[in-house]
Amino acid sequence: MTYLSSGFSVERWTRASRFAVFGCVMVLAILAVVPLLTGAGAVDRLTALFVYVILAVMWNALAGYGGLVSVGQQVFFGLGAYFTVRLADVGLDPFVSLFAAALITAALSVPLSFFMLRLKGGEFAIGMWVVSELVHLLVNLDQLIQGETGTSLISLNAYDSGTRRATIYWMALIAMAGLLGLLFALLRSRTGTAIQAIRDNEDAATSLGVKVMATKRVLFVLAAFGVAVAGGLWLATATTFQPKTYFSIQWTAYMIFMVLVGGIGKFEGAILGAILFFLIETYFGSMGVWYLIGLGATAVLFSLYMPHGLWGAIERRFGLRLLPVGYRLTFPKSLMDQHGR
To answer: What is the rounded CA–CA span in Å between residue 166 and residue 296?
Structure first.
């Protein structure tokens, strides 16, 4: 906390946020031993939860902090899975292939960013969807994939089911924790401040010397990498790759739902939204089309009546900031008393 001569103070960490970080470390430590204590069903479901958290946090980073609303992030999800299959087919270990595929996807997102980041608002959103559809068609042309018939990550059969399930779980846990930590550090850095400045007013940020395109590119590539990791992990759990499934806009719809419900532009909100989506899917996913209709209606209601999401409402009501990425100005106690606060 930094104190100013006028009695005001600027703080980044609070007592609650310090406890929250400690709590996160403890939760991760507990989650790390889950495969040793529970059955296959719980391990598989928690792996899915970790993937949902990655997807929600990456889309929130892009749209909530960077102002880059995309409806085409499924392109990176699909490419992460596709390159995993491709690399495994040439003999690379499937688990190594998973992260190598994410790196390749991130590398491809760099030249793509030079075109896409020139688009604004709705143009960027629709442009990303168009790119996703084009890539989907190109992947279908690969003889290994056999069009929409798809293929399987058969090299995973080299591992017994228990080892495979536990390894995927731990990889998903490490990926989730690593990406969360990386994004948190980025948003608290000078680059993170520049990212949020661009979101709020790009022209003003430019006038202050912010390198707008380079800063946006950092976020764009990070989001591509994270979503590609999620795609590879999902493939590892499902083993079967069908382009129409992995390049489906449904994945971006899930990301948007999780972020809208949890709280867009809130670090904690994306995590909360992923947990809520996971619970809804667990208990109501078997309802088929009514489940999807319910998700859509819920997203609309939150947009209309709770635009800041659940975490935004909690933060406004209780002033609770567990994982702060910005700064907060604290008023002197005498001034607060004077105004009856």
So the answer is: 34
Task: List C-alpha distances in Å: 114 to 110, 132, 219, 294.
Answer: 7, 16, 13, 37
> Can you tell me whether residue 339 is helix, strand or coil?
coil
CB 225 within 8 Å of CB 102 = yes
Q: What are the angstrom distances between the C-alpha of 338 and each of 7, 329, 331, 334?
A: 14, 17, 11, 6
Q: What residues have CB less than 8 Å from 219, skipping those under 6 apart?
A: 61, 62, 65, 66, 68, 195
Residue-wise DSSP of 192-209? HHHHHHHHH-HHHHHHTT
Torsion, Cα of 66, 176, 82, 120 (10° steps):
-10
Instruction: Provide, rounded to the nearest whole percent, the portion of the chain with pLDDT above 70.
Output: 91
Q: What is the pLDDT of residue 11?
A: 66
**Which is more confidently placed, 52 or 162?**
52
Separation CA 61–CA 215 (nearest Å): 13
How many H-runs (helices) and E-runs (strands) does the chain carry? 16, 5
21 compared with 223, residue with greater pLDDT: 223
SS3 151: strand
Helix (H) or strand (E) holding 191: helix 190-200
Could you tell me if 272 and 263 are in contact, meaning their C-beta atoms sit under 8 angstroms apart? yes
Length of the chain: 341
More confident residue, 319 or 143: 143
Alpha helices in 239-285 (DSSP H): 243-246, 250-262, 267-284
CA–CA gap between residue 256 and residue 112 (Å, rounded): 22
SS3 for 120-150, per residue? Answer: CHHHHHHHHHHHHHHHHHHHHCCCCCCHHHC
Question: CB-based burial of residue 290 (10 Å sphere; 0-12 exposed, 13-18 middle, 19+ buried)?
Answer: exposed
pTM: 0.91
DSSP run (H or E) holding 328: strand 328-330
Asked if 71 contacts 259 with a C-beta cutoff of 8 angstroms, the reply is no
For 15, other C-beta atoms within 10 Å of its C-beta total 7
